[in-house]
Amino acid sequence: DIELGKSGARARITSGGEAGGSAGFLITVNPDRTTTLAMYRGGADVEAKGRTFRLDANTATTILESGVASEPVALPPPPVLSSPANDAVFYYRSLPPQVSLAWNALEGTDAYRIVLARDREFRDIVSREDPVRLSFVHGNLKEGTYYWRVSGKKKWAEGPPSKTGQFRVVKDTVPPDLRVEAVGGSDGKERGLLKGVSEPGAAVFVSGNRIPVAESGAFECDVTLARGVNQIVVEAVDPAGNVSYRTMRMYRPN
Question: Which of 69, 146, 185, 207 is the most exposed, having the fewest neighbouring CB atoms within 10 Å of its CB?
Answer without folding.
Answer: 207
